[in-house]
Structure formats: structure tokens, C-alpha cells
Amino acid sequence: MPDNAFQLPTEIDTTIAHEARVYDYWLGGKENYPADRALGDAIAEHVPTIKAMARANRAFLSRAVRHLVADAGITQFLDIGTGIPTAGNTHEVAQQLDSNARVVYVDKDPIVLAHARALMDSTPQGRTRFIHADLHDPRSILENPDLTDTLDLSEPVAIMLVAIMMYFTDDDRPQDIIGTLLEAVPSGSYIVITHPTADFAPEAMAGVVAAAEASGIAFHPRSKSDTSELFSGTTLVDPGLVPVASWRPELIDRPAVVAEAESAWYWAGIGRKP
Where are the beta strands (DSSP E) in 172-254? Predict the structure, then answer.
């Protein structure tokens, strides 16, 4: 593979929509531009509740981290596809429960790099780092000194892949990418995945795919069966692979963001490496 196969952008092009900024727009953030808002609105024409779905996905991240720290004793996180910092980042949730928690964030978008300082606000006892890298090249993440200096890969790690794998086609061999990550961490580690699906509304999701591709963003929803294959080599923890809004809603101390579980079109699950 050529050295520049996954050459990362270092300049922010605000004229082209980017998935991290579109997501920021849906969450009510301010780090987005007309091209991002245009795509966000185009997708909303097919899925009017898309902003609620984005919030439901974000709420799952908080519940997942709470479970992993409080119930599984995990204090190390590798959060890939971090996105633009907002309230309830992984390290904030984890360090509220265990001030020693350590988190490494990864994203390829230069605008996330520009805001990485917000991801470095660690407790004195814990530690956070940001890596500008592309998940298409998982070795570039695993071999980065900031990762190996921050996380102890001989101890369990939770790998967070929240709303990122839909940007990988089958030709990208996503199972191999995830497998490479899992090979690098020991037994007792976890993989956390949410993934949009066409299972609940095929026609509307087809419109989302078309809108994204028209803006130059590859978008690949997966069925429950296909999403479950991303957890190969792990054992799903209860309640298994379920709609994102119905994954342990009791772990959050406010009403569910989405009233009906299947109104947020993501599958969500946590797998444990035996």
C-alpha cells in the first residue's frame, strides 16, 4: 500500500459537506457551514426526525460509557470517528465515574483537529489525547506514539465506533479493519458500534444514501444481520444488537430522546472480546 494511500487533509474546505460537520449541525452545534447545512437539510427531507435520531445516537454513547466504566470496570477508551467536540464527550462521561480514565480520540477531519483542545480537558488523574488519523489505515492509529503513551494495550480497552462504519463500503473490508483493532487489545476488551440501517424505512434511507452520495459522501446503511457481522470475534452483552434508543435506556437519568425504539434508525450494541 503506498505511503500516501490515506493522506489526510490538513486544510478545512468549507465548500464541501463533511460528515462530522453535518452531524454537528444536527446536534445543534456551531462548527458547520452552508454546504454541511444544505446536506443536513436534504437528508431531513427524507428523514424529518434526523436531528432526534442524532441525539438518540449521542445519548447511547453516554449510556455505553457509563455501563463500561461502572459495570465492566473499563477505564481505557479508544474513540474513533470522534467528531466535533460537544457536551458529553467520552472522557467527560468516563471521568465523572472514574477520574483515572484515559481516552484516545481519533478523527481524520481537520476541523476536529482544530478543536482537539476541547478533548484534552482531562482530570489530573486521567489522560486524553487526540490522533489525526484515518480508520481505513488502522495500523496508523495503533502504532501512533500518542496511543501507546496513553493507553496500556496489555489491559482491556473499549473501542468506540459510534456512527462511523457506515462510511465504509464492503469493498473497504470493515470486518478486517475491526479485526485489526481487536487483535491489538487483550481479552476483556470491548467494541461499541452504532450503525444506521434501512431495516425500518427502506425508501427513506435510500433517499439519505442518494443525498449523501450527491454531496460526495459514501454512505452505506447495513441490515441487522450485516451489522452483527461487525461484532465477529466478540460476544454481545445484553440486550444484544437492538435499536439504539432501546439499548439500556435506564442508564440515563432523563426520558428517552426518542419515544419509540424503532424511530431512530440505528442498530447499537457492545461486544466483549473473550
Answer: 190-196, 235-236, 242-243
